[in-house]
Task: inverse folding
């Protein structure tokens, strides 16, 4: 088991996540959460600049990115934004996403003036209850080939 773990970690160390992202912003989300999937569908529809790529937190890529940043690989309570070698979580991630969308959504970034611990209090309340309030599912939107190219599920061939 130790050899497998070491091998997995050495593979992750060699992955250039920014290269995989092709210098776009990656949104990692809970792939079985109805609220999260609806949010991703919303982002897809409003991403007119084609700025975002997507990966579920449960995917091989999502798990590798969590491991790379020393995050719990079984904690799916936060949407994560990976951009330029750094991650943003919770409400800060949501505000970053809003800033990249078409229409008036970028104006939500004004909420950055509210301290993160207050914003995250609301975020945590919703995250804790999201399955109860919105449910879970195992299937997602059926993607077109263009849309499918925006989802990163596996690590690059090694």
Result:
């Amino acid at each position: 088991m130790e050899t497998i773990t070491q091998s997995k970690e050495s593979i992750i160390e060699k992955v250039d996540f920014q290269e995989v992202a092709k210098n776009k912003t990656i949104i990692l989300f809970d792939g079985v959460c109805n609220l999260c999937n609806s949010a991703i569908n919303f982002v897809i529809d409003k991403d007119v600049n084609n700025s975002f790529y997507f990966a579920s937190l449960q995917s091989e890529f999502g798990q590798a990115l969590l491991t790379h940043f020393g995050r719990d690989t079984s904690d799916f309570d936060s949407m994560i934004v990976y951009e330029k070698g750094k991650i943003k979580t919770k409400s800060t991630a949501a505000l970053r996403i809003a800033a990249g969308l078409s229409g008036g959504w970028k104006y939500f970034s004004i909420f950055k003036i509210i301290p993160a611990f207050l914003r995250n209090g609301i975020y945590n309340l919703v995250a804790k209850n999201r399955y109860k309030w919105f449910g879970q599912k195992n299937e997602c939107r059926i993607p077109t080939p263009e849309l499918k190219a925006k989802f990163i599920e596996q690590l690059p061939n090694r």
About this structure: The first strand starts at residue 25 and ends at 29. The mean pLDDT is 84.
